Amino acid sequence: MTQIRAFIAIDLPQSIQDSIEKQTARLQQTLGNQIIRWTPIQNMHLTLKFLGNIPIQHVDFLKQMLTQIADSHSAFDLQIGGLGSFPSGKLPRVLWLGIQPAAKLISIQRDVDTGASRLGYEKEARAFSPHLTLGRVRQNIQPSDLQKIRSAFDTFQLGKIPSARVDSVHLYQSELNSKGSIYTKLFSVKLK
Question: Measured over all CA atoms, what is the biggest interatomic distance in the chain, rounded to whole angstroms?
Fold first, then answer.
């Protein structure tokens, strides 16, 4: 049985990608590529549900599920702003841009998680924390590099990023290779 690595996500319009790229360029320049593996702007998305490795035959079931969900949700706006890191500011591993958790976003994510669990996928154990991954801290960095990240975050001022209109949800395939992830859109549904 052939399997693919998949996730369900919301895309960002090109104008928002351009704004994020412009607003975070100084941070990327300050921290460089030696200690952070930056997310290519074209790969930036808001994950609603990471499915992991799934049988290719499940794609049709996921399409049906997403179509039903899209029929009960209308388009909405997202506001992006604020920087943070997981698991904490003292020990950053993932650098992120925050997203205001709008009620419509929370509702659609909950429906995606519930629908996926009906198809046999595990429900999320953690609360939904909407974010856009800016980059990942490389393994085995020096304590001085961690201090550099913390200092950069303490002094960096993120400019205004316009709100993003969300009018569709997508099923993606993710292929991992030595240069990073390659995302292929398998299916999209328009919100009503």
Answer: 51
